[in-house]
Amino acid sequence: MTAxxxxxxxDPAAPQDLREGGPWRQARAELRRRTSALVSLVVVALFALMxxxxxxxxxxxxxxxxxxxxxxVDPYLGGLPLGPLGGISAEHWLGVxxxxxxxxxxxxxxxxxxxxxxxxxATAIVVLAGVAAGVAAGYFGGRTDTVLSRLMDxxxxxxxxxxxxxxxxxxxxxxxxxxxxxxxxxFGWPGIARIVRGQTLSLKHREYVDAARVSGAGHWRxxxxxxxxGVAGPVIAYTTLIIPGMIATEAALSYLGVGVRPPTPSWGxxxxxxxxxxxxxxxxxxxxxxxxxxxxxxxxxxGDALRDVLDPRGGRx
Length: 317
Prior knowledge:
Helix content: over 70%
Strand content: under 5%
Mean pLDDT: 84
Largest sheet: 2 strands, antiparallel
Oligomer: single chain
Strand order of the largest sheet: 1-2
């Protein structure tokens, strides 16, 4: 047998993904062929950039989110915006809020910052806790698996929305953004933990994991070198699907009045305030609702595409 033949022969003990030579390259190529995934990625990137550059954008527009402009509303018509489409003008690019005259563009971009910050931070907590619990339950098994699995069942059976509303209602002099992040993240980890547990149960019996164990590799080395890379694809895919749920949860809590408090802007809070003006100033309702809808839809479509590419078995189940 020649040296070139030996070089071309795949290692049977290596992970299947590595022997196929670049699953991430294949995933990128597949995503580039999906128009919906590309459009969703562009929309997600635009909203993320808008959130990051919120102070700069509001300064560019010339108004702070908490700055009143009484000259932009008509006090004789209940504070309705002056001008067409909710007061859209060269000074107020998306119009103004009724009664207060606060610039809607500044509040929308700062609301994106608040909503996406809470969603991303809560998702990070969910993913870290879920991956840690799922890997530990699937890899070590036995009593560890039993305890963690029962904890997952208990958390998933809890009425999370009622508990969130109760917690946010009784908490007063606290950082609302931090509290919302922790409360939302507290109830989200069992779903991804179950996915990771099932994937880990499958991976820990693979030949390359057995070979690493026989060669004397410790648990930490096996988990970091063999198990975690194997669950990375499904975790990334389902993480993208978790984010829109986090955004919607934050918006729902703010809509119910137990989320972030004024004058801090939030899309859910703006939608709740706009309900009273939907018939006289529909733009006040349309703008934050459209931002929320596009963000959730883009993350959902992107997550579906990533799941089909990185976790095809999960996508078919």
